[in-house]
Amino acid sequence: MGLNTSENGMDSWLTDDRYPDLPEYYHAPLSQAIDRAKQAQSKGTVDLVFYTDPHHKPGGNQLLAAAAVKHAAKALSSDCIVVGGDIVENGPKDIVVLAQSEFMEAIRMPGCPALPTRGNHDDNSIHDFHRKLRGANHVIFPVEAYADIYQCLNGTVSFDKGNETGLYYCYDIPGKKTRVAMLNSVDIVYKIKADGMLQQNGQWEYAFSERQVDWFEHKVFDFTGLPESESWKVVIFSHLPIIQRGVKGYVDGEVENGEKIWKIIKTNRKHVVTCLFGHVHIDQMLYHDGIPMISTLNAVSYRNYDESPERTVGTASETAFDLISIDYSKGELRLTRFGAGEDRIIKFEA
User: Fold this and answer.
1) Spatial distance between the Cα atoms of 31 and 26, rounded to a whole number of angstroms
2) What is the mean predicted confidence (pLDDT) over 35-50?
C-alpha cells in the first residue's frame, strides 16, 4: 500500500529533482512506488506497467500520469507499457482525435513500447448517439485509429497480417520467453446503414471477431522456431473482461465469442499466466479455471463505487496505475500501485 504521511497523500518535505516535469505532490508517492516495485524485481522477472481508462481530455491531468508512467518504466527497466483502453473522453471528433494523439505521444518513450488496446469509448460512437445527430460523423473508425496510434508499432509488434485494422496484436519479449497478447474486445463490423447510422455501436456492442478468434488460436500460441518453445508464457490484455462471470463493476454485456477465446485459453493453459483488463473501474482479482483475471482501477479521477478508494484532484490519488513484476520461479505476480488503491500479490500456476 502507498505511504500517505500528510493530508495531501505525500511526504510534503520530500521533493525529487528527478521529476522536474511533475508537480511536487507526485514526487514522494512516485519514488516510494518505484522503490517498492524494485523489491519485487529479480533476475528474469517480466516487468510491465499497466495503465487503463484515462478518459483523457486535451491538456488534462492524465498527461501528468503519463509522465509518471514513463519515469517509473525507465527506473524499473520495464519491458513495455500497456494502455488498457478508454484512452479518451468523448466529444466532437476533432477534439477526441487530438486528445488521443496527445495522450499516446505523452506516454511513448524510447526502448519501452506503449501498447494500446481498443476501449469501448475509443470509437467515440456515443457522441453521435447521445446527441441524436443521425449519423456517424464523429466516429473514429478502426482504420483511423490504426493510422493515428497503432501503425507506429509496425516492426515492434506482430499484427494479424492483412487485417492490421483489427487492432489486435502480439509483442514478444524473447529474453524472458514471454508473449504479450493485446486483444480487441470491440472488434465489431463498422458499417454505415442507409440512414447514416452505424450498424453496430462500439460503445455498447462488444465482440472478438471470428477472424480474431482464429488468429488467437493459431498465432498467439504458435511458438514454432523459438528457443525452448514449450517454456514460453502468454500474458493477455483486453479492455473488457473476456468472460464476465463473477466480475464486479461495469458489466454491461457479454463479449461475443468470449467463450470461444476462453476455450482456447483453457486448451493452452500451460502457457497462460493471467488475463488483465480495465473497463470496470474497480480493482479486483478472480480465478476462472485456475487462471487469474485481474482488473486495475481507472486512471481517470472518477470514484464509481463506494468500495473504491477516494480520488482527489491535486494529489497522487487523481490517477492510478500498476507496476507489474511477474516471477515465473515463484508463480507470483506483484502489482505495485501508484496513486489511488493498494499493492497486490497474486499467485498463479507456474
Assistant:
1) 8
2) 96
pLDDT digits (tens, 9 = 90+) for 54-112: 999 999 999 999 999 999 999 999 999 999 999 999 999 999 999 999 999 999 999 99
Other CB atoms within 10 Å distance of the CB of residue 342: 12
Q: Are 350 and 327 in contact (CB under 8 A)?
A: no
pTM here? 0.93
Helical ranges in 271-319 per DSSP H: none
Number of Cβ atoms within 10 Å of the Cβ of 320: 26
Q: Among candidates 57, 72, 81, 80, which has minimal Cα distance to 26?
A: 72
Q: Does domain 24-347 have CATH number 3.60.21.10?
A: yes
Residues with Cβ within 8 Å of residue 316, at least 6 apart in sequence:
2, 9, 10, 25, 26, 29, 30, 338, 339, 340
Q: What is the rounded end-to-end Cα distance, in angstroms, of the chain?
A: 25
Q: Answer yes or no: are the C-beta atoms of 81 and 49 closer than 8 Å.
A: yes
Contact 241, 256 (CB under 8 A): no
Number of residues in the chain? 350
Handedness of CA 255, 157, 56, 274 (dihedral sign): positive
Sign of CA dihedral 346, 297, 15, 75: positive
Give the Cα separation of 38 and 35 in Å (integer). 5
Contact 314, 6 (CB under 8 A): no
pLDDT level of residue 197 (50, 70, 90 thresholds): confident
Residue 178: closest CA among 111, 262, 80, 109:
80
- Count CB atoms within 10 A of the CB of residue 13: 8
Domain boundaries defined on the chain:
24-347
* Residues pairing with 22 in the sheet: none
What pLDDT does 89 receive? 93
Q: Which three cell numbers stand for residue 258?
A: 468470449
Contact 308, 281 (CB under 8 A): yes
Q: Give CA–CA dist 231/259, Å, rounded.
A: 26
